[in-house]
Specification:
Radius of gyration: 23 Å
Number of strands: 10
Structural class: alpha/beta
Shape: globular
Largest sheet: 8 strands, mixed
Order of helices and strands: HHEHEHEHEHEEHHHHHEEHEE
Strand content: 5-15%
Length: about 400
């Protein structure tokens, strides 16, 4: 018996009666909870935030959940990613998390997908009614945002055709800070529209690294950027390689001792090299709860949705603020306004892609290129077969 007496008593208080803050499409009654059991939810990411999302979704009445993640469980995950145990180290996060929630919450089926999101085709993503992001990468967010926006179809008046826009709830945490963003592709601001909200990546001047290091991070960056390429020409540091990270750590430690700097440790070396932000379990819990609340409101209409950005700051007391991020008419992902570029007739496809990657207007890390609806360069598993076209003009 999956629906034991009283299981949904608290949820029914929201779904069985109207209120002043419900959406115009809300229909009170059992129908709303039944819809939650039918819709398919995709959770992208099964890490610290993803574990909280899966738990909250399952306990809130969502019964058909898929989760995708490309990582395997590490010992360092166990302090906050509570769906995993020591015996799970080395196993795919998505598979272990899905099995745990499916077993623990009666009536809920969580389907795992082990691999990168870029390895899935469009048909995979189109089968879901809502997507919830628990990612720790801006690049991955931009990729999935662009893909979801590409699903939107417009009528002759430029309005979004019903059923073609898949809502996205994006959650993110950084130490004691976090955010929640509700995205309706084609109607509201997408993730790309809000790129200006993210601070630029921290970079250290090479002269400081080479001549006057002052912090442990300076010594680690020196070992990674300057010492490693000198010792291993033509090779860059693989931050997932224990041997490479041990080499960088030892070099950074030696450099720190020479300069009278304390504090270089292996864990700090891994954090700096991978640009890891300290994860706080309570922040993940707060942001995940807000994300699932928004998913519940989107699916049932039991209350007004967030419009459209929530910022949380727990670093100095507790502070939250919600505001509207405006949709950019010139957005590369969700706008219908074309951007015109003038190129020399001698410009190659490779040079064009480099422009898209380096120009401040675009900042596309791995752009695919279509011409008249046909792929002439596609990033992903089949990229090798397109590389010969990079010299085409």
């Amino acid at each position: 018996m999956t629906d034991f007496p009283g299981r949904w008593a608290n949820l029914n208080k929201l779904l069985n009666r109207r209120g002043p803050l419900v959406s115009e499409n809300f229909v009170p009654g059992d129908q709303s909870r039944e819809i939650m059991g039918i819709v398919r939810v995709l959770v992208i990411g099964a890490g610290g935030l993803g574990c909280e999302l899966l738990k909250d979704l399952a306990l809130s009445g969502f019964k058909n959940i898929d989760v995708i993640d490309m990582d395997k469980i590490e010992v360092t995950n166990l302090n906050r990613q509570f769906l995993f145990r020591a015996a799970d180290v080395g196993k795919p996060k998505a598979e272990v998390a899905a099995a745990f929630v499916t077993k623990r919450v009666p009536g809920v089926t969580v389907t795992p997908h082990f691999g990168a999101i870029q390895e899935q085709d469009e048909a995979f993503f189109k089968q879901f009614h809502i997507v919830v992001l628990g990612l720790d990468s801006i690049d991955a967010r931009r990729w999935i945002n662009s893909l979801i926006c590409s699903f939107v179809k417009y009528d002759e008046d430029g309005k979004v055709e019903p059923g073609t826009a898949v809502p996205v709830v994006d959650g993110g945490t950084e130490g004691l800070k976090g955010h929640v963003k509700v995205i309706w592709p084609g109607t509201k601001a997408c993730f790309e529209c809000s790129m200006d909200l993210f601070p630029p990546e921290t970079k250290f001047p090479l002269c400081t690294l080479a001549e006057t290091p002052r912090t442990p991070a300076h010594c680690i960056e020196w070992a990674k950027i300057l010492a490693f390429p000198e010792a291993f020409p033509g090779k860059s540091v693989d931050t997932d390689s224990p041997d490479d990270m041990q080499w960088v750590f030892q070099k950074a430690k030696q450099r720190a001792e020479e300069c009278g700097i304390e504090g270089v440790t292996l864990s700090l070396t891994q954090g700096v090299a991978k640009n890891i932000i300290p994860a706080v379990a309570s922040t993940n819990a707060i942001i995940a709860a807000a994300c699932v609340n928004e998913a519940l409101k989107i699916v049932t209409g039991c209350s007004l949705e967030l419009d459209n950005y929530l910022m949380y700051n727990g670093a100095a007391g507790v502070y939250t603020h919600a505001y509207v991020v405006e949709k950019l008419e010139s957005c590369l992902a969700c706008s219908l306004v074309p951007i015109k570029l003038s190129l020399e007739s001698t410009t190659t496809l490779g040079e064009f892609r480099k422009l898209l990657q380096e120009d401040a207007q675009f900042q596309l890390k791995k752009p695919s290129v279509l011409q008249s609806g046909n792929n002439i360069y596609m990033v992903g598993p089949f990229e090798k077969q397109f590389e010969k076209s990079l010299t085409n003009r």
